[in-house]
Amino acid sequence: IVAEDRFKALNHAYETLADRTRRAAYDAGLPPPPAPPPPEAPPAAPRRPSPRQWEAPADPVMRSAKAPGPKKPAGPPAFMDVLRDATRRRGHEWPED
User: Fold this and answer.
1) I need a labelling partner for 28 at 20 to 30 A (CA). Which of 7, 68, 93, 97 fits?
2) CA 80: distance to chain centroid?
3) Is residue 12 part of a domain?
4) Domain of 5?
5) What's the burial of 55, exposed, middle or buried (CB within 10 Å: 0-12/13-18/19+)?
């Protein structure tokens, strides 16, 4: 009996799929196919280091431990000063201290 039911089911499926009008009605009754999963987002780029990250922290304890000595002659400007001025010249903002 099981084989006979299986044969009838297969025969009915074949007839349904072979007849265009019955196939269209069958397809119309099906639920829509599942939507494909959204594409994975590309990995986020790592944050660029801030120029301030490379500055030595101001340590008041170390400053007070130094004995006052003769003033040194003014040398070339510090790197961060040059970077700040170049950034402002190009029209960009620079965070104030």
Assistant:
1) 7
2) 30
3) yes
4) 1-31
5) exposed
Q: Which amino acid is at 37?
A: P
Cα 35 to its chain centre, rounded Å, is 23
pLDDT tens for the 97 residues of the chain, in order:
788 898 989 888 888 888 888 888 888 888 877 888 888 888 888 777 776 666 665 665 555 555 666 666 666 667 778 888 888 888 877 777 5
What is the secondary structure of 22-77 as a DSSP string?
Answer: HHHHHHHHSPPPPPPPPPPPPPPPPPPPPGGGGSPPP-HHHHHHSPP-PPPPP-SP
Contact 1, 9 (CB under 8 A): no
Q: Whose structure tokens read 């040398």?
A: 75
Report yes or no on 45 lying in a domain: no
Residue 38 included in any domain: no
